Amino acid sequence: MTTNSATTEIKTPYTVNLSTGDPEAKREEIRRYFHETYDAYEALFEPFLDKVAYTTRADALRHPLIFYYGHTATFFMNKLVLAKLVDRINPGFESIFAIGVDEMSWDDLNEAHYAWPDPDEVREYRAQVRECIDQLISKLPIKLPIGWESPFWPIMMGIEHERIHLETSSVLIRQLPTSLLDGEHPAWQPSDSDTTPQTNEIIAVPGKSVALGKSLEDAYYGWDNEYGTYSKEITDFGASKYLVSNDEFLAFVQDGGYSNRDFWTEEGWNWVSYEKATCPRFWLPQPDGSYKFRTMLKEIDMPWSWPVETNYLEAKAFCNWKAAKTGQPVRLPTEEEWYRLLDYTEVPDAPAWKKAPGNLNLEGPASSVPVDTHPFKHGFYDVVGNVWQHTETPIRGYDGFEIHPLYDDFSTPTFDTKHNMIKGGSWISTGNELMRDSRYAFRRHFYQHAGFRYVISDAPVEIPDDSWETDPEVIPYCEFNYGKEYFDVDNYPEKLAQICLDIASDRKREKALVLGCKTGRAAFELAAGYKNVTGIDFSARMIRIGVQLKEKGYTQYTLPEEGEISSFHQVKLQNLGLDGTRDRVEFMQGDLSNLKEIYQGYDLILLDTLLERSYDPQKFLESASKRLNEGGLLVIASTYDWQEKVTSRDHWLGGIKVNGENVTGKDRIEELLSKEFKKLGTSRDLEYVLRRTARTFDHNIADLTVWEKR
Amino acid sequence: MTTNSATTEIKTPYTVNLSTGDPEAKREEIRRYFHETYDAYEALFEPFLDKVAYTTRADALRHPLIFYYGHTATFFMNKLVLAKLVDRINPGFESIFAIGVDEMSWDDLNEAHYAWPDPDEVREYRAQVRECIDQLISKLPIKLPIGWESPFWPIMMGIEHERIHLETSSVLIRQLPTSLLDGEHPAWQPSDSDTTPQTNEIIAVPGKSVALGKSLEDAYYGWDNEYGTYSKEITDFGASKYLVSNDEFLAFVQDGGYSNRDFWTEEGWNWVSYEKATCPRFWLPQPDGSYKFRTMLKEIDMPWSWPVETNYLEAKAFCNWKAAKTGQPVRLPTEEEWYRLLDYTEVPDAPAWKKAPGNLNLEGPASSVPVDTHPFKHGFYDVVGNVWQHTETPIRGYDGFEIHPLYDDFSTPTFDTKHNMIKGGSWISTGNELMRDSRYAFRRHFYQHAGFRYVISDAPVEIPDDSWETDPEVIPYCEFNYGKEYFDVDNYPEKLAQICLDIASDRKREKALVLGCKTGRAAFELAAGYKNVTGIDFSARMIRIGVQLKEKGYTQYTLPEEGEISSFHQVKLQNLGLDGTRDRVEFMQGDLSNLKEIYQGYDLILLDTLLERSYDPQKFLESASKRLNEGGLLVIASTYDWQEKVTSRDHWLGGIKVNGENVTGKDRIEELLSKEFKKLGTSRDLEYVLRRTARTFDHNIADLTVWEKR
Predict the structure, then answer these.
(1) Residue B111 scores a pLDDT above 80
(2) Which of A109, A610, B275, B641 can pair with A516 through a Cys bridge, CB separation 3.0 to 4.6 Å?
(3) For residue B100, what pLDDT is reported?
(4) Where in this chain does the record put each DinB-like domain (chains A, B) (predicted)?
(5) Is A681 found in the same domain as A569?
(6) What DSSP assignment string belongs to A406-448?
């Protein structure tokens, strides 16, 4: 099972259709796919001439290759242990090879903390894991379709994970000293083709809608970020015929591109300054001012006709330079524009290929090829393949995004607007990476076998701030307003709004004001009856959620489950039946104790558990009447939970002794309002639950009173 | 209605029987009692020669008399407003005359904050209040018996309150300069009797049980502290035949009693030093070394045969001096010993009197009389009357103590072990003060018309620390363990213990350990099945409650309702069916993360929501097995709510990523225990509710797992 003999050909079948076919035949197909993946990955390490190649750091911010050698096997084990399908083989290895791929907070890249084992031991471990998984594939019950719940899903997860590392490890190997590598290994030879560089040109792409995201019923393995729905109308744009070649990029370098701050984003300039970069990483400046070029295993003469490989920051600087030179709106495509080009050029999806339509899937050489090698429709080249293509779009989840419980941090830590998507695949992209639906993103300064195509478009790039709300003050109120009900307590803001709507059913219902609107649910609910609803909260962090819902119809947030473990939640107004009236709602920041005079002329003011969270609650009550229309309603919900850290004792409405007698907030409110208001009906209790963790909650009882302006 | 003409006789009927009689006749009886009380109080102020007498401070720590003049009327109004029976007459007066009687935190005695009105205005206000109450007495529906809920109760409350101030204001007047007073006012003339001082002697009082406290069905008005039950076995003691006379006290003074620290308690010595006292307050040292004496209105020759009047601290110093001189265990009586003497001398209760059995009820002169004037059975004098008698006993509530909602701070602020009881009444004690059941207490340095009788007894004085638990960390756990159920959630520790008892029903049940016992309920519950239960908590503040319950069978605590307003609660093991086994339970302070080795040999260890509140929870789990007997059970309840402020992140059992994978506390506990334990059954959820205020709660769900030692 070891792979000591030199591989000459990597077998790269397309990823498995998990939906149809004979189950036992499917079992064998998965077994074959597993072994061929495992073989391919081990073939990556065959060119290592010396054990020191394993422990040499190719990149200062990444583990040495020995980590990645063990990692793909350990990943299988860790997921299968989590799925309670296997027992550990080597707990020590399964700890040190577990984490350290991205620059996550939990990545420990201090090499002093690691005593890397001998590569032979790791090879032996890999063999044990291979055997273990092979046996597991034999014995697991199989049933089609294989979905998220199937025990075969973590096996597919391990395989596709290893295929990702097949590519990313090849990038790291490309950064090892050539002296440690057998440059002539037959399986990893670069192309020897270098054509005359072509002048790039812009080809028009007509606008159209693109629909993205796949369903859980899809027949192929997918990472969590691929599921859900998203569609966008794309306006006409122009796209470069070719990927940008080394030759085309040279003009930017020679024009002082790397030393002119104007062309760089702030993040880009920080990177250039830190790295002291003067050209793309795989260009090797020579003493005579010329360049050589680094492939995976060796240095070659500069292939000017091959696509340039840069990180996002360099690609973006090139576009800015080009825009400055041409006066044209040059930029990188968005994710959606890239898909539009894919649709426009009618590229079929991988499983339908007889042969890859571009330089992909290791079907060609172990390197790029000239940018004019692979033509697509309408005159384009390399719509997919050769090198990945940077986009302007940070990765985020589509509507309906859910997390697979066995890999809850595959995507969400990258939903931070700091990880931009790359599309289209490279010569070494295989498996899931070839699928139309696949979505990968890296930090903008990371290198992959990635270059770019530029577009000309006036359409602004919208970078949706589509990260997950994690503000610990805000997220309990997201769940409280839009999430699950706990302890059989009805959704509080919904019920509160319903009570208001019922009471006001035969009254004028033009304008309503919600004071203490939190994340907005009551305001949206009131819009069913009122033409104009303003929600006000003191905290911009709270109303941000309401604004998001109004503008986008959805919001998403994390909830702490236990300690650092969180779950991810998305809510949509549509699912709550609140989508139709969201244009009637607005959210403003405001201070109850110092509320602007403009907030007047209401038919309803709902004051929701805010008096007890204001520094001078009496002030509002004194102005309440003049803010209401004739016969307008003031609805007050309060727990009367006065706290000194919020309201100084001399401003408490109740819970105090006045002239030696106990005064409750309820009494005091009645006293303050009785001149200008008539109390309607009796007060009532309304429970609400704030979730803190999976097992801890606040459970309160608001007192609800209704007042009619005299 | 004003009382400008000099009163010559104060009418002092006994307090009203509220239980029997014709309702309309009762209405008139109350009206008469009201007016006679109001008259008597106003008569107090008749001797004032000048308005300045109203605004002169008689005592640096008390308001001037003008406050007390207005206060008794305002008290009526404030209670009747609170009871929603009347509207305010003069909100300004009803604010400034409301508070400032004791030295409470809410008393504002800074005179700069007061602009006292003219006494004539106050007199006019008093007349308005009198008229208002008279009308109220006419119109209120009346029904016998008149109990706590009756609208006549606040009227009786106001009357008896004014009768208290009749006495306490007379003490303040006694401290005004005589130049401001008409010393010859006919209603307030002192006795002119002064007999030859008698030598005091000790008379034996045989021990017996005393039963104290009255029921809510009692026919007479009572303050909250009088209700409930309490009984105590009194051992034989000796009591002085007479109250200590001025003559007897003189020996102490002449022996340097006021300058010898040895005789004084620390509190007493602080008082002597601060006041620079050299003799009792109403003794007036003359330049020739003799003394004159101050009565309510004037100075007279020293009546050596009258009872000495001191505060508690001086009385106590005298006893200590006498004990030092005689080698006898001389001290003041306890409350119970005073009652024993009352019972032994068969003193009937006030309503049965034809004439007061001592110098009481203003039936004699407006002063004390010689201590040999009023004989009682068995040779005693002044068992009641003449002056109040200091006791060793700080006031507290009896079992079943409840607070009347219209006067929730009559007693509880004095249940602080700093207010000692005085018993027996003085020449100016009237109304409720004459009743056997009445209980009054003052700060130990306060002066009243009070002296003392000493006793000889070896019985130690037990000062029950009978204050109300107010520790904000502890009181939610008092209610949680012993109080009401909220949101229909069963009592958690009771249910938890029941589950343990059920699981262990056919096992050895000798020794059980509760870790995280809080205020002890689960430990008491487990004692139903285990012979020996140890409850351990990290917090001595928590286990103090358990210890109290074990030792006394009851505990009492306040609960925040809203802001500063609290309610008062008493719980008894007996009412929970837990009284019979409390000797099987012990409570210890201990640290789960560093638990002593001696805690071994258990058949059950219940680990209740403590792992998540320990700084190193793993440590205990590693030792759990060796602490259990063969087949012993470990029951773990946890919310897995790891918090950094309690447990540093590297000691969290779960809620963390280990090698990049989520690990839950539940998983980790299973991993740690699986070698030495077998898990029994499946885990289950157990809800619990912690009350924070009347409307705010924590509502959590513990996960319960049961482990059997292999």
Answers:
(1) no
(2) A610
(3) 67
(4) 34-168
(5) yes
(6) T-TTSSGGGTTTTEEEEES--TT--GGGGSTT--EEEETT---
Q: Per the CB < 8 Å rule, is A696 touching B639? A: yes
What Cα–Cα distance (Å) separates residue B124 from each residue in A226, B48, B69, B128, B381?
Answer: 85, 17, 11, 6, 44
Residue A641 to residue B693, Cβ atoms within 8 A: yes
Rg of chain A in Å (alpha carbons): 31
SS3 A351: helix
Find where tokens 């495509």 sit: A333
pLDDT digits (tens, 9 = 90+) for B245-291: 999 999 999 999 999 999 999 999 999 999 999 999 999 999 999 99
User: Do residues B115 and B232 share a domain?
Assistant: no
A16 and A29 Cβ atoms separated by less than 8 Å: yes
Instruction: Identify all chain A residues contacting B697, using CB atoms and an 8 Å cutoff.
Output: 698-700
- Asked, for residue B6, whether it belongs to a domain, the answer is no
Task: With cut-offs at 50, 70 and 90, classify the pLDDT of residue B3.
Answer: very low
Nearest Cβ partner of A699 from B106, B642, B699?
B699
Residue A405, preceding peptide bond in cis (omega within 30° of 0) = no
> Cβ contact (<8 Å) for A699 and B564?
no
A49 CB-near residues (< 8 Å, 6+ apart): A179, A180, A181, A182
The answer on B483 and B409 residing in a single domain is: no
Query: What pLDDT shows up at residue B399?
Result: 80
The residue with tokens 């207490």 is B441
Interface mutation target, options B96, B613, B659, B705, chain A, most CBs of A under 10 Å? B659
Set of chain B residues whose Cβ sits within 8 Å of the Cβ of A655: 561-565
Nearest CA in chain A to B700: A696
Which two tokens mark B586?
Answer: 């012990």
Q: What's the CATH code of the domain at A131? A: 1.20.120.450
Answer whether residue A170 is part of any domain.
yes
Residue B85 φ then ψ, to 5°: -105, -25
Q: Provide the CATH number for the domain around residue B262.
A: 3.90.1580.10
Asked if ipTM goes beyond 0.85, one says: no
pLDDT digits (tens, 9 = 90+) for B324-340: 999 999 999 999 999 99
- Amino acid found at B207: G
Alpha helices, DSSP H only, in B84-205?
Answer: 93-96, 119-139, 152-173
Q: Is the peptide bond before B145 cis (omega within 30 degrees of 0)?
A: yes
pLDDT digits (tens, 9 = 90+) for B698-709: 999 999 999 999
- A676: CATH: 3.40.50.150
Query: Is B638:B612 a contact under the CB 8 Å cutoff?
Result: yes
Residue B622, pLDDT score: 94
The answer on B184 and B206 residing in a single domain is no
Closest CA to B224 of B433, B85, B398, B431: B398
DSSP state for residue A84 in the 8-state scheme: T
pTM over 0.80: no
CA A552 centroid distance within chain: 17
Residues of B in contact with A652 (CB under 8 A): 563
Q: Would you tell me how many other CB atoms lie within 10 Å of the CB of residue A12? A: 21
Six token digits for residue A280: 């793309």
Residue A11 lies in a domain: no
Nearby residues of A513 by Cβ (< 8 Å), 6 or more positions away: A533, A534, A536, A599, A602, A604, A605, A606, A627
Do A258 and A357 sit in the same domain of this protein? yes
Same domain membership, residue B551 and residue B451: no
Determine the structural domain holding residue B493 and report its residue range. 475-709
Domain assignment of residue B10, yes or no: no
Residues B1/B141, Cβ–Cβ less than 8 Å = no
Q: Do residues A214 and A87 both lie within one domain?
A: no
Residue B363 is which amino acid?
E
- B375 and B297 housed in the same domain: yes
Kindly state the DSSP code that residue A173 receives in the 8-state scheme.
H
Nearest Cβ partner for B99 among A565, A656, A660? A660
Contact between residue B709 and residue B677 where contact means Cβ atoms under 8 Å apart = yes
As for how many domains chain B has, the answer is 3
Q: Are strands A419-423 and A440-443 parallel, antiparallel or unpaired?
A: antiparallel
